[in-house]
Design brief:
0% strand, 83% helix, globular
Length: 371
């Protein structure tokens, strides 16, 4: 084996091993890194709010505190709305159970006929599986421990948000201090661009969640679907997970529509509501609200969401796109990483029809004109 092939083999081996230990380390340290990462990205979301308060003459500390409190209120409102709707579902559960019973019996009969096993045996197997999944080993934390850990991490995120926004200039200057002086201006440009991309995407996404929740609620309420608000809030929040989230939201709405007993027409109605809303979001609202979004190609987006989800769960899915967007900005500005930036981006990829591009271009021009 010549030296070139041996060097290539060593680089490949180190790359595979390094990638494995990188994600293994991220998984093992998720208890520390997830609250910190959420604090970083949520602080970017609330920076425009804190800056607005500062322009109104408030001190930085009070401005940051109000911005931090605003996102806490937002979370509390979402939890309250969801809790009220879940309580309503619990009250209506006997009615849902009555409607599901015939379907359940049909499914059990079908499985029994195909598998050649009695329905009672199937029910016993299902019951055993449920009981086993509910059992926990002595090493696993109990419910109280899990709730305490969640609340602790939840409050810790808001502590991170406050201090990251309050000391944002010091943090930025500290990072620049590691860069040689001749390259400091370029590094400052990369930091500003990365911050703008993440901030624009996340802040715009939160505004879109509110708008989507309203649009879904109106459409589902007109169709007469029960718990329309709960379904709409969940579907809007799931939109944070690209592609997958919209499908899950649609599936939940369809299931609740069927349980509401509105007939076969509800399938067409729910499909129409989600199709129209998705069209409005993608080609009218998004250019106005989000603006220049993270420019990642669909393949990378799906891989990133799945991979981050496997490592950090829902939190990983939430931050996957901003993290990849920041990495793309860095790759586009560092010559040795330019091929990676090209791989991540949408250059030379055309996935939209001509009229869709024209509509997006029109919306972008309108937004620029309004500014």
């Amino acid at each position: 084996m010549n030296d070139k092939a041996l060097r290539l083999l060593k680089v490949g081996f180190l790359l595979v091993v390094g990638t494995f230990f990188l994600f293994f380390g991220l998984y093992k340290a998720k208890g520390f890194l997830i609250p910190l990462s959420l604090g970083v990205f949520l602080s970017l979301v609330m920076l425009p709010v804190a800056a607005w308060f500062e322009r109104k003459g408030l001190s930085r500390g009070l401005s940051v505190l109000l911005a931090d409190f605003a996102i806490l209120v937002f979370c509390a409102v979402v939890v309250f709305i969801v809790s009220m709707q879940v309580y309503q579902i619990a009250n209506d559960w006997p009615e849902y159970q009555e409607k599901l019973q015939p379907k359940y019996e049909q499914i059990m009969q079908f499985i029994s006929d195909k598998a050649g096993v009695s329905e009672r045996e199937i029910q016993n197997k299902v019951k055993e599986s449920v009981e086993k999944s509910g059992e926990s080993s002595g090493n696993e934390p109990g419910i109280i421990s899990k709730v305490s850990s969640f609340l602790g991490n939840f409050l810790l995120v808001f502590v991170y948000i406050f201090f990251l926004m309050f000391y944002r200039r010091k943090i930025k200057n500290s990072i620049l201090g590691f860069i040689p002086e001749e390259k400091r201006e370029k590094a400052r440009e990369i930091i500003n661009q990365s911050s703008k991309v993440s901030q624009q995407y996340l802040f715009g996404r939160f505004l879109l969640i509110l708008i989507l929740a309203v649009l879904y609620s109106v459409g589902l309420f007109i169709l007469g679907i029960k718990q329309a608000v709960l379904i709409s809030v969940i579907a809007a929040l799931l939109s944070l997970i690209p592609y997958i989230g919209n499908i899950l939201g649609y599936g939940i709405a369809l299931l609740m529509g069927v349980l509401s007993g509105n007939g076969a027409g509800v399938i067409i109605g729910v499909s129409a509501v989600f199709a129209v809303t998705q069209f409005i979001e993608s080609y009218i609202l998004e250019p106005f609200v989000v603006g220049e979004k993270v420019d990642l190609n669909p393949t990378i987006t799906i891989i990133g969401v799945v991979l981050f989800g496997m490592v950090w769960g829902l939190a990983g899915m939430f931050i996957a796109i901003p993290v990849l967007g920041i990495f793309k900005v860095i790759s586009d500005n560092v010559p040795v990483l330019n091929p990676l930036g090209y791989t991540l981006g949408t250059e030379d990829i055309s996935t939209e029809a001509g009229w869709m591009k024209k509509l997006k271009l029109w919306a972008a021009k309108k937004k620029k004109h309004l500014k």
